[in-house]
Amino acid sequence: MTRTPTSTHDSLARELARRDAAWWRDLAARLAVSIGGVSTILFIVAIFAFIGSQGFEFAWNRLSWSELFFGTRWEPTVSPPTYGAWAMIAGTAWITAVAMLVAVPLSFCAAVYIGEFATGRRREWLKILVELLAAIPSVVWGVIGLQVFNPMIQSVFGVQIGLNVLNAGLILGLMAAPIMTTLAEDALKAVPDSYREAAEALGATRWQVIYKVVLPHARPGLSAAVLLGIGRAFGETIAVLMASGHTLMAPGSVFDSAATLTATIAAELGEAAVDSDHYQALFVLGLVLFFITFAINLLADRIVRGRRRS
Amino acid sequence: MTPSQRLRALAWITVAACASACFGGKRHYQEVRNLGSDTMLEVAGAWAEAYDKLTDHIVVSVSGGGSGTGIAAMIVGKIDLANSSRKLKKEELARARSNGSDPIEHHVGYDGIAIYVHKDNPLRSITMAQLKALFGDGGELQRWSQLGVDLGPKDDHIVFVSRQNNSGTYEYFRDAVLGGNRGRFKLECRNMNGSKDVVEVCGKVRGAIGYSGLAYANPSVRVVPVQRGPDDGAITPSDDTIISGEYPIARPLFMYTNGQPRGATKEYLDWIKGDAGQRVLRDHGYPPLRKLD
Predict the structure, then answer these.
(1) How far is residue B186 CA from its own chain's centroid?
(2) Rounded to the nearest 10 degrees, what angle do helices A165-189 and A219-235 cross at?
(3) Domain shared by A176 and A273, yes or no
C-alpha cells in the first residue's frame, strides 16, 4: 500500500467522485448481470402467472379436481365433456419409469467408464459424442420411435402394435441418458483423488474402488442426475406423442399404448378455441405438469445442496 | 471507408436494388388471405400455387390452424377466406352476427373418410352399425373373429386407430358414425395426430382398423367398402360414389367469406369452383364438386 487510508468516508467520496469510463463500464456491467440474474425469476413467475391465468376461470368455477385427478375419461369435445386426466398421469408415470430403467444403468455405466476408465483422447471424444447425442432434436427421436422401434418391438415381443409404453420409454431413456451421463460424470469427478489413492493403497481393485468408495461418495450427485433425468423425461413432448400410440387409457403393461400430459397438451391445444373450457382445461394440465417438474427440480436441488454441506 | 470500399458497397447496393426490382414479384397486386382447416391445408396450398401461375395481380397467402381458427379470423375481418371442413356452428354464427359480419358459405369440394385395414385383412365390407360397434364406447366388436375374419390368434385382437379429439375428422366420424356429438369413442383407441399417421399405423399393424381421409390411401393398406345397412350394397369410396352421395361417410368442404365475395376474393373463389380449380382438388385425392373429364 503506497497510499495511507484516511477515513472510510473520504475513500467513499473519492469513489463517488470518480466518473471515468471504467466507472461507467463497471456500472453497465453490474446492471446487465443483475438484470440477467433477476430475469430468470421474472420468467418463472411470468410463466406461472400466464398458465394460471389462462386456466383459472375454468379451474375455479367448473372443474372438479377429483374428476381431474381420478376421472378415467378425457373427452373435452364430446357433449357433455369430461375432464379426467388419470389416464395421462398414469401414462406419464409409466413411461417415465421405463425411461429411467433404461437411462439409469446406461448413463451410470457411461459415466463410470468416461470418468474412471477412459483416458486421454478417448475420454475427450466420448464426452463430445455424449454431448452430441444430447443435441439430437426430439422430433428425430419420434421418427425413430415410429419407424424403427415400432416394427422392432412388434417382431421381438410378438405384440400387435409397437407404439406403446415400452417404445416411448426407450426413446425417452435414450434422450435423457446423455444429460444424466454428463451430470453423473461431474459427480464422480467431484470425488477427491486422495480417496481413490487411499483405497488403492489398501489393495482395492479398480472395481472395488469404484463400487465401495467413489459411487457411495458421489451418491447425492448421482441422485440429482436421476431426478433431472426424470424431469427431462416428464417434460418431453413430441417424441412421446409420436411413439406412445397416444391412447387415453391408463396402461396395464408396457405393451399397452399410453398418453402423457405433455403430449395431450401438444396434440389438442392447436385446435382448442381460445378461452373455451377445453383450452382452459389444457392449461390446468400444464399447471399440474408445472408443479410436478417444479417439485422434482426442487428435490434435486435439495439433494445437491445436502452433498455440498456435508 | 476508403474509396475502393465505398465503391464496392455502392455496387452491392445496386445489385440488391436490381434484385428486388427484378425478383420482387408483382408490384401492384391484391392479396387474398386464406386461413383455416388443416385437412384442407394441402389442397388450399395447391390452389394458391396453381392460381399464382395464372395471374399477376392476385397473391393468395395460405395458412392452417384449424377450421375454428379460420372462421374466428374471418368473423373479425383478419382474413378474406376461411377454409372449413365443417359447417359453421350455431355459436359461431351468433358471434358473427353480433360482430356485424355475415358469413356466406361456399361449397368447394368433398372429403371422403375411408375405412382402412392392413392389406392382408380380407374384410369384404362393413356396415355403419358394425363401425359403431367397433369404435363406439361399449361396442361389442373387439376381435376380428367376431366379424368372420381370420387373421390368426396373434392379430385377432382389433387395434382401433382414431384421431385426437379436436380434429375435424374425429368430429365428423363421431357425428356420422357414433350418433352425433354425444357419441364417445372406445378408450383404447389410439389417437393419432395426423391423417397420414392413421394410414401408416394401419399399414404396419395387421390387426388394425382406422378411419382417415381417402386421399391418404397407400399400397400397404386396403380401403374397406361401407354398407349403410346389412341389406344395402357395399359402396367403395370414389369420386363418383361421393359426389352422388351414395357413400355414407363423406363430408363437404367449405370456404366462408364475410358477405358476398368481391374483387380478388371473388375471382379466386370462382376459379376454385370452376373446372381448373376442381381439377387441382381431384389431383390431390379429394372428390370434386361434379364429374370432370
Answers:
(1) 24
(2) 150
(3) yes
Q: Distance, in angstroms, between B213 CA and closest chain A CA?
A: 18
Q: How many CA atoms lie within 13 A of B87 on its CB side?
A: 4
Q: What share of chain A is helix, strand, coil (3-state, %, to 5)?
A: 75, 0, 20
Give me the interface pTM, i.e. the ipTM: 0.76
* pTM, 2 dp: 0.78
Q: What is the dotted CATH code of the domain comprising B3-110+252-283?
A: 3.40.190.10
Confidence of residue B185 (pLDDT cuts 50, 70, 90): very high
Cross-strand partners of A45: none
Nearest by CB: A160 against B157, B166, B183: B157
- The answer to the question of residue A69 being in a domain is no
Residue A205 lies in a domain: yes
* DSSP assigned state of A73: -
Q: Tell me how far apart the alpha carbons of residues B92 and B75 are, in angstroms, rounded to a whole number.
A: 9
Residue with cell 433425468: A229
> Which chain B residue has the Cα nearest residue A245?
B190
For testing the chain B interface, which of A72, A150, A161, A282 should be mutated: the one with the most B CBs within 10 Å?
A161
Select from B181, B190, B200 the Cβ nearest to the Cβ of A79: B181
Burial environment of residue A273 by CB neighbours within 10 A (0 to 12, 13 to 18, 19 or more): middle
Q: Amino acid letter at B285? A: G
A95: which DSSP letter?
H
User: Which of A162, A246, A273 shows the shortest C-beta gap to B191?
Assistant: A246
Other Cβ atoms less than 10 A from the Cβ of B236: the count is 15
Q: How many domains does chain A have?
A: 2
B201 at A interface, C-beta within 8 A: yes
Closest by CA to B235, choosing from B214, B208, B207, B206, is B214
Query: How far is C-alpha A186 from the chain's CA centre?
Result: 17
Name the 3-class secondary structure at B225. Answer: coil
Tell whether A254 is covered by a domain: yes
Q: What is the pLDDT of residues B120-176, one digit of tens each?
A: 999 999 999 999 999 999 999 999 999 999 998 889 999 999 998 877 788 889 999
CATH code at B112-243: 3.40.190.10
Question: Residue A63 and residue A78: Cα distance in Å, rounded?
Answer: 16
In chain A (310 residues long), the average pLDDT of successive 10-residue segments reads 57 73 90 92 90 87 88 88 92 95 95 90 92 90 91 91 93 93 93 93 92 91 90 88 90 92 88 82 91 86 70
The residues, any chain, with a CB within 8 Å of residue B5's CB and separated by 6 or more, are none
